[in-house]
Write a structure and sequence with these properties.
The structure is a homotetramer. In chain A, α1 crosses α9, α6 packs across α8 and α8 packs across α10. The first copy, chain A, contains 10 helices and 17 strands. Chain A is α/β, with parallel strands linked by helices and about 400 residues long. The N terminus and C terminus of chain A are likely disordered. Chain A has 2 domains: about 130 residues, 3-Layer(aba) Sandwich (Rossmann fold), CATH 3.40.50.720; about 240 residues, Dihydrodipicolinate Reductase, domain 2 (2-Layer Sandwich). The longest helix of chain A has 19 residues. Chains A, B, C, D: InterPro entries: Gfo/Idh/MocA-like_OxRdtase_N, Gfo/Idh/MocA_oxidrdct_glycsds, GFO_IDH_MocA-like_dom, NAD(P)-bd_dom_sf.
Chain lengths: ~400, ~400, ~400, ~400
């Protein structure tokens, strides 16, 4: 039974963090009800440590109140949902406390910076779920309409048995070796570099699209630029970069498929290119996040002379999530992956069903990232992954639009 | 002097109409202040004839109040801006009354259904402007970052002297001959078909990008499907389509350039493809609205062996409007052409400068559309356009982001 | 009855001209028998006015002998085929004489520089055909495998009823206003500019793909650069350009379709871009000669959510002409449009059937080009084309590979 | 001193093998002199075991004589060049005998099926070279104009220091699990599968483009379809596939760059897609063999707002090899990679310089392939490659067109 049953009061939402992800999540909360039928909710509190800055952000992004201590919102009866956009090293503490306080939690990826944290969080989520308190990890690209369509096509057998998968996430914001240090480039704050930040999305997509499990991993990581200007600028001297610039892996999947994964922050000219290629025995799919409204599909059962990758402009009412938006051919932006995420999270909370991806799904990605690092530390030697002790509940989920 | 000078009260906005364009404009009003520094304003009143429907739309789209008679909002002192999203045949009456009442007017394109209306509106706008009351016609594609960048590159001489221009707007929603009748397919309500609806955008872009004037027009229009199922469905019988499905024109420009223009609603597989190609003697530009975050640029002054059209992913902070949004490579959607439009309109209103495109710009497009129809009615024979009696004021405008 | 019946001697071939087209045709003759089963033939004589130059060319391109007077080869019994690659102003005299001498004629396009010549040639061809002497005009792009496939798909109804067609041929070799004068830029030698040289290909493709007839034409031509450095260079002063740099037309087709045609030699960055788009009520096709091994096909009868233009890499054995070449994915070059042309010409000659495109087909294109010029000279006013007095025989032809 | 010095007799060429590669090499010999200035040569003898079949092939492909025993051509004084297109398992015996007989050898890749053979051949080549007898291994893609241009741009520093490289060769001819057995799918005849056949090309390109050396390799291979219909068809039962369908590797380069390599024969919809991406700190390059006339180049030193991958249509006279061919925009086909190869081989032979890629280059690729297999057999654990004992001579070579 949902904790909200029997009440018609709007769900109260508090969000912790207001940087890049906070801006994107706020946009989702501010707009979701203009496009989708969702339960009533209110953007109540924005939480951040700097009182003035958080006040400005709240005004800008549509939050009614502010707080500087995230613990205070856990005590409030009018807050039902905590949206955690704080940095990764704070995830475990906040999420566990929120779940214990009976709050539904939407948590930005990655689940956590360490395996121990991730496991504790997953246990807390399982416990909370048994009491009707929901949780979800924000692998937002599961809600790109083109990728939701890709999953549907694969599930419907349109490309047959999947064999060979290629996943890559290529960016170039560190191609300039004068790009300065930040918390993202230190192991103690970021956990890892391209691996945790973007390879994680690529790996999550492999699991999502194939609905499969990784059994074996070979990995490699590399830092091309080992020292960068400190926050004091060049005068302040160079500081050590302690995370990877790039990562490579091959993943064996339980089904027999093999996926290659590649992530880079020095792929000059690639701005935000999450590329997926899935080759089955009856067809194939291709996707690039830089053209997020497009899916390339090849039907290998068509007559040979008519075969070819077709560019589906995923903007028809028949496509996942799209009927809420604009007429065909009027494309949507990156930020609406979060709008869809919030929509699905709200529907799950109101219906008392477990949203997807769950913390277990986030833990699964974390285990794979961990195995990549283990393999990388052992000369790329293959690392076996044992099946998860507790199979993730409710991971199938729905990816369909209204 | 701006009528708002000396007051710090937020600008009150009323919007008339809540269909497709109303939904898109509402999105702009609801979000513009989250991304851009704009003067304070309030989404006060949404106006529509059906009280229940307008109430539902207002709740969904963020309007505080509703009204069923647009005249009532003109009488209110707390309303400073009227956003006209009503159908074209209502434009003249509403816009002239609003301007006369001292309200700033943002008006969806096309300016009007007839030349007489367009001229009366332009006169009213000129009169109002002299009293500090501003007006703007919503050729939203001027605020696509890629097209704003294209204009800047042309103005900076990066493609040299422009000679040959190709403009096309291709859609396919009437390719199915069973697609039903609507007000858009009747001359008395829509004025024209593909010509006024989408060729108008293509023509406006030619004027915008080249900052030029049309002197001569040859045109052609055609209706491929002359009868369609009535609103009563097939049983209700077929009704006559009285507007064009497709239109073609060649335009001579004062500079010596020549532009071809082509519009179609039966271009199967083209969903919303506004295509522009501008060939100069030092370079060239290409654009397709289906990939609205991209601009193709060729620099013909580079060494021959390094020349080629480069795909600029218009998502860098250095690009027009983009620094307000997301990190590089995170694309924006079609709807934000309106967000940028509203931002520029608000800035113009608050600074007391004339926004662009003006009603004069809208009239100029109208005159060209009219010439296309005249030519089409005369076996495509060239029609001369005399220079506008009153040159448009303030049409240069700014297209730059914050 | 074929004049070759009863003899097993190889067909003797003489070619007149050895510039650009001569080089391309020679390549076809030199290689056709290595890939296709064709009747035996010999590359006997290369004809050109400059004895030394023609000798060098013959050695390079594989011709056994040379001659400096084309009339001499018409007298030889061992010459059965004349391949005319001489400039357009020589076409009529050579072709008529060759046909009268009982030689099969393969003639580069355009058929002729004037309508009078074209008509005389067509009459000669018809007369010769009645005696078993064949003739063909070299619209080589009919033998691009992707365009042959396009024609087959249209003929098979895969895109339904064709309505809207867009044809363009864009080049940029005259974008530089210092590009020098040549015979191609003077009316007396070239007949016309972009119109005859490249719009002719675009128009021929419209006729070929749709198997249709033009009834009405509106046209426009323009010269952007009116004076160019003479053959003596800048010091020698500027000379007048007397042909068009660009041309535009709309064509009404007997079926009810409408085609736009656009040609330019100043389309900066477009190198050799013959673009075709054919929109039917059940699908669409797109092609660009710069990617000549690809055809884009959209099947509008597929479920909406799976529709999209598919890029067919036309390199499968199932595709026209392709099984003679390389394994799938190994693309062929532009020059093999001529190899296919020569193959089909040889098969037609040996089987005594009329090859396609015939001189009548060439005349039909010429009539349309003439109408474009007439219309252009009359302010773009529509010009009617009466149906050809003598319908072209054997124009359907075969475009299939072996 | 070249063995040909002092003689003006044409070089006599014999070719061994006339299947796929023989057809492609024959095309090169038949046409090279029509486009390039090369020393005089004659297509003298085609060698194959089946007398009737080789006679037919010789007639078709332009060889004057035939032989059924390759040893006979080694004894002839009028044969100076042996072009080895026989299967890989015959390479060592033929090449060593030919070199010992003083014949220049052009040898199809891969160099050999085993490391022992490859080393013996390389020693023979080094010995022969010291006596003026030349040898070359046919990594034909080094002569794709776009890739030759890529190498020049990298060498000129246009993309700065190379860091991250992605190389993939994707085909799909084994995607159908009913595709039958062949010698290519058995270890004893083919050596390996996708690895040796196509990953070898990808690896050679990494070495070629970067002019670098591999120091460390992690690898993986996999066979997705383990049993296939035998040559007797389904009735004949299934036979074991004993080579890989796909291969993955990461390569460390001496410069500090890292390359990923991926090859597949089950990449449904990818027909012949050799993809290369080279990311430097000042720019990037991309290439796909399915569009072999195009190179994508990004100049990261341009102003941010003008940056983007530009599609260079490699068809200008300024591009490597291209001035021999057609006007700009007229693309060439796959087969001319061999035409360029033969051209460069002939020039090297006649000038007495060592052609590139040498057998040492072929051995280097072989050593990397061997390391991939070693690593794959050891759970992907990294394998170190020691620097070659004898550095390859003359490997820099020239890739420029005439």
């Amino acid at each position: 039974m949902s904790p909200d049953a029997g009440t018609t009061a709007p769900l109260g939402v508090a969000m912790i963090g207001y940087a890049f992800m906070g801006k994107a999540h706020s946009n989702a909360w501010r707009n979701v009800a203009s496009y989708f039928d969702v339960p009533a909710f209110e953007q109540k509190v924005l939480v951040g440590r700097d009182a003035a800055a958080v006040a400005e952000a709240a005004a800008k992004y549509g939050w009614a109140e502010t707080a500087t201590d995230w613990r205070t919102v856990l005590d409030r009866d009018d807050i039902h949902i905590i949206d955690v956009c704080a940095p990764g090293w704070m995830h475990a503490e906040i999420a566990i406390a929120a779940l214990d306080a009976g709050k539904h939690v939407l948590l930005e990826k990655p689940l956590a910076n360490t395996m121990a944290e991730a496991e504790a969080m997953t246990a807390a989520a399982a416990h909370a779920r048994s009491k009707g308190v929901q949780s979800m990890v924000g692998f937002n690209y599961r809600r790109v309409p083109a990728l939701a369509l890709a999953k549907e096509l694969i599930a419907a057998g349109r490309i047959g048995t999947v064999r060979h998968v290629r996943a890559a996430y290529l960016q170039d914001w560190l191609a300039d070796d004068q790009a300065p240090m930040s918390w993202r480039l230190k192991k103690e704050t970021a956990g890892s570099g391209a691996l945790g930040d973007i390879a994680s999305h690529a790996i999550d997509q492999v699991l999502f699209l194939l609905d499969d499990r990784v059994t074996e991993v070979s990995g490699r990581v590399h830092t091309f630029v080992n020292r960068r200007p400190g926050t004091g600028g060049q005068a302040g001297g160079l500081e050590d970069v302690t995370v990877d610039d790039a990562a490579w892996a091959t993943l064996s999947l339980a089904s027999g498929a093999i996926a290659s994964v590649e992530a880079s922050r020095v792929a000059t000219g690639r701005k935000n290119s999450l590329q997926l290629e899935v080759f089955g025995d009856k067809g194939a799919l291709r996707f690039d996040l830089e053209n997020l409204n497009e899916l390339q599909f090849l039907d290998a059962t068509a007559p040979a002379r008519e075969q070819g990758f077709r560019r589906i402009l995923v903007s028809e009412p028949e496509h996942p999530y799209v009927d809420a938006w604009w007429p065909q051919g009027h494309i949507i932006g990156w930020e609406h992956t979060f709008t869809h995420e919030v929509r699905d999270f709200l529907l799950a909370v109101s219906s008392g069903t477990a949203p997807s991806p769950s913390f277990e799904d986030g833990l699964e990605v974390q285990r794979i990232l961990d195995a990549v690092e283990q393999s990388a530390a052992s000369n790329s030697t293959l690392v076996q992954l044992s099946p998860a002790a507790t199979p993730a509940a409710g991971t199938a989920g729905t990816t369909e639009g209204a």
